[in-house]
Amino acid sequence: MEISKIYSRNLSKLPGDSIESRVIAIEENIRESDTWRRLEQVCSEAGETDPAQLARDEDFWDLIARSIYEPEGPFLNLNHGSINTMPIPVIRAQEAYTRLCNELPGYWFFEGFNTHREKLRAKLAVLLRTNPEEVSIQRNTSSAMETAIFGIPISEGDEVILSKQDYPTLVYAWKQREIYDGVKLKWVDVPLPSEDDDALIQPYLKAITEKTRVIQVMEMFNWNGQIVPVEKLRDKIGNHDIALLVDGAHIPGQLPVNLEKAAYTYWGASLHKWISGPVGTGVLSVRKDWISRTKPLFGASDPRSDDIRKYENFGIHNTPKDLALHTAIDLFNLIGEENKRQRLHYLKNYALERLSEIKKVQIKTSLKPQYSCALGMFSIEDIPSEVVGHILFDQHKIYNVAPVWGGLDGVRISPNIYHSTADMDRLVEAVNKIAKA
Ligand SMILES: Cc1ncc(COP(=O)(O)O)c(C=O)c1O
Predict the structure, then answer these.
(1) Whose CA is nearest to atom 12 of ligand 1?
(2) Cβ neighbours of residue 194 under 8 Å, at least 6 residues apart?
């Protein structure tokens, strides 16, 4: 029996108690706030405008920015790829759930919040276009993906295909399985950037042998924002004995997700990135027929069960933070999936197109929407990207990351919807100065 059931007093069944209404009131208060109403008005005025046209409407996005975001201060934050800034209603929701929880923390954690947590699972399933019974609420992509990496039933000699450009925490996890369990890692090199589907998926296909049990693939590489045609890869693999483990860290909130159609074996993502949820929120999806054979990372009373909830035995954790995802998803839906995708893509392209006109600047991200969205990368000939990144931050107060990994290096920019083209001009001007110095 799970610990929450052992501790449960079934208080929600006490007569006269309106547990669920206390929780629902939090969401209602947010929706009735001036901020939310202003946002609803702004979005309804935008009406039926074509998302491509709306993406260029600085006034619309300025209103969104002023409705739900705090001003940025002196810094220009061009690293939303690591963690998005939380919109004000999401901060308010987290605070309200925290205050409610604080009245009787043990009670709310073990039972009071349970119904609302299940409603969150259902809401996530709608967002990801899948079945709630395949959705596990996690802390981030690392915990989601590592649940699969350490839980998948493979053993000594079995082969795992992954790329040199994969995200470090996942690479380290696989290296542990190599050390402790003798699984064989087969590294492929993915050409980044690329606008050639075949070039992106062939390295994986060529590495397949009769011993291949898993292929791990990034749906969007975090370094330069490269989108990989994972569904094409899945179709070409064809062999259902090979598990497809997909890192979708950056996908929700940037690109539409349809997990039912995709039918990946495992898919993990962060919700503190482009869904703009509270820090430390993520999701794992496991295909129903793989749940019973994939053991949980933290012990469960029935590890062979096919109940997706067996992956959520982390001990006591911050449920108010998870529940504020309700607001983050509502907000995302209000702004509109396609409106957000197009705005992010437009802003990143606006910056990269202008940067490409500067002598010595190299662009390392495709500008085409099927190969990138919010993330972009560039470098300056003869100046190490780490140095460029430091100058941008120290002298121009432009926050960025300048990763060197898997043969790729550059300065990564990842603006958010509340930025303006004037913000992108500020970046371009700063890079221009650095390149000419
Ligand atoms: C592609 C990719 N995978 C995994 C992760 C890990 O995400 P988290 O730190 O939320 O666990 C990240 C984080 O930036 C990422 O970009």
Answers:
(1) 249
(2) 200, 226, 366, 371
Question: If you measure from the C-alpha of residue 32 to the centroid of ligand 1, how many angstroms do you get, rounded to a whole number?
Answer: 34
- Report the SS3 class of residue 256: coil
141 CB near ligand 1 (under 6 Å): yes
Protein residue closest via CA to atom 16 of ligand 1 = 222
Atom nearest to 145 CA in ligand 1: 4
Architecture of domain 338-436: Alpha-Beta Complex (3.90)
The answer to whether the CB of 375 is under 6 A from ligand 1 is: no
Task: Decide yes or no: CATH 2.130.10.10 for domain 117-320.
Answer: no
CB 140 near ligand 1, within 6 Å: yes
Amino acid 181 reads D
Domain boundary assignment for the chain? 117-320, 338-436
Q: How do the pLDDT tens digits run along the chain, 437 residues long? A: 666 667 666 655 544 457 788 898 999 999 999 989 989 999 998 888 999 999 999 999 999 999 999 988 899 999 999 999 999 999 999 999 999 999 999 999 998 899 999 999 999 999 999 999 999 999 999 999 999 999 999 999 999 999 999 999 999 999 999 999 999 999 999 999 999 999 999 999 999 999 999 999 999 999 999 999 999 999 999 877 899 999 999 999 999 999 999 999 999 999 999 999 999 999 999 999 999 999 999 999 999 999 999 999 999 999 999 999 999 999 999 999 999 999 999 999 999 999 999 999 999 999 999 999 999 999 999 999 999 999 999 999 999 999 999 888 999 999 999 999 999 999 999 999 999 99
Helix (H) and strand (E) counts for the chain? 19, 14
- pTM, whole model, 2 decimals? 0.96
Question: What's the Cα-to-Cα distance from 171 to each of 9, 61, 175, 186, 409, rounded to whole Å?
Answer: 43, 38, 6, 12, 18
